[in-house]
């Protein structure tokens, strides 16, 4: 058994990105990790928060035959969880890093087949933040965003403009009446973020998600912000 293997390494406009697989001796499980330069982006050891973004977001969405957009493919857990909802008719996943898309197409990641084999799911090489600045050619029922660590800890300075009243107003135009916006954050609930969302949306909520963390022999937590476009 290999305890560590670098599955891929490529240069991107954001920096060098790599996919690694290792065996974690504490958790006693195989772990997939993505790093951007020296910064850890995501790990398959902790997937509850990514899945919660989809479950909480879609629980708030109303109706059938839902059209959903996920911003950020990552290891695929948010998209895979969204596809478990039978109301989802089509799911578009926008990912700016071509290597991440390539890992899924090549089946290098645990959830890859569930996405590639589902006819409802389309993986797109696109910049989510640029897409929401454009006039919408269609509107959707839910937009679920998991790209930056938090609104204050972005992966690229250009993302910061999104987390403003103007940026969120542009996103709102891509939602149908009553549509839901879900945002993942690695920090505890921040009243400033809730106040910002309330300037653009209604029914703003901050849902704390806790999950076991074997590395600290305890629990960790993140936040899923939810908001709705008014009718």
Shape summary: globular
Within the largest sheet, what's the order of strands?
A: 7-6-5-8-9-11-10
Helix content: 10-25%
Mean pLDDT, to the nearest integer, reads 92
Q: In what range is the share of β-strand residues?
A: 35-45%
Instruction: Give the class from helix and strand content and strand pairing.
Output: alpha/beta
- Tally of structural domains: 1
CATH-defined architecture: 3-Layer(aba) Sandwich
The helix count comes to 7
The number of distinct β-strands equals 11
The largest sheet is: 7 strands, mixed
CATH third-tier fold name: Rossmann fold
Radius of gyration equals 17 Å
Q: Which stretches are low in confidence, meaning pLDDT under 50 for 5 or more residues running?
A: none
The sequence of SSEs as H and E is EEEEHEHEHHEHEHEHEE
Brief summary:
By secondary structure, the protein is an alpha/beta fold. The chain is built from seven helices and eleven strands. It is globular.
Report on the structure:
This protein is of the alpha/beta class and 231 residues long. The chain has one domain (46-228): Vaccinia Virus protein VP39 (Rossmann fold), CATH 3.40.50. Helix content is 24%, strand content 39%. The protein contains 7 helices and 11 strands. A 7-stranded mixed β-sheet has the order 7-6-5-8-9-11-10. Strands 1-2-3-4 form a 4-stranded antiparallel β-sheet, covered by helices on one side. Strand 10 (202-213) and strand 11 (218-228) form a beta hairpin. Helix 1 (48-60) packs parallel to helix 2. The longest helix has 13 residues, at 48-60. 37% of the residues are buried. The model has no long low-confidence stretch (mean pLDDT 92).
């Amino acid at each position: 058994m290999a305890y560590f293997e670098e599955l891929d390494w490529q240069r991107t406009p954001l920096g060098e990105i790599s996919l690694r697989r290792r065996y974690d001796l504490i958790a006693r499980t195989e772990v997939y990790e993505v790093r951007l330069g020296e910064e850890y982006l995501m790990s398959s050891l902790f997937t509850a928060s990514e899945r919660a973004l989809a479950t909480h977001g879609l629980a708030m969405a109303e109706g059938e035959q839902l059209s959903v957009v996920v911003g950020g493919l990552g290891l695929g857990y948010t998209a895979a969880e969204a596809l478990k909802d039978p109301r989802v008719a089509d799911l578009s996943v926008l990912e700016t890093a071509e290597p991440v898309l390539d890992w899924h197409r090549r089946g290098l990641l645990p959830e890859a087949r569930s996405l590639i084999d589902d006819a409802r799911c389309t993986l797109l090489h696109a910049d989510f933040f640029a897409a929401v600045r454009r006039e919408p050619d269609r509107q959707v029922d839910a937009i679920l965003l998991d790209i930056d660590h938090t609104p204050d800890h972005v992966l690229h300075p250009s993302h910061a403009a999104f987390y403003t009243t103007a940026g969120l107003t542009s996103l709102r135009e891509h939602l149908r009446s009553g549509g839901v916006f879900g945002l993942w954050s690695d920090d505890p609930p921040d009243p400033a973020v809730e106040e910002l969302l309330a300037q653009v949306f209604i029914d703003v909520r901050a849902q704390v998600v806790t999950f076991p963390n074997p590395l600290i022999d305890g629990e960790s937590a993140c936040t899923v912000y939810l908001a709705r476009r008014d009718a």
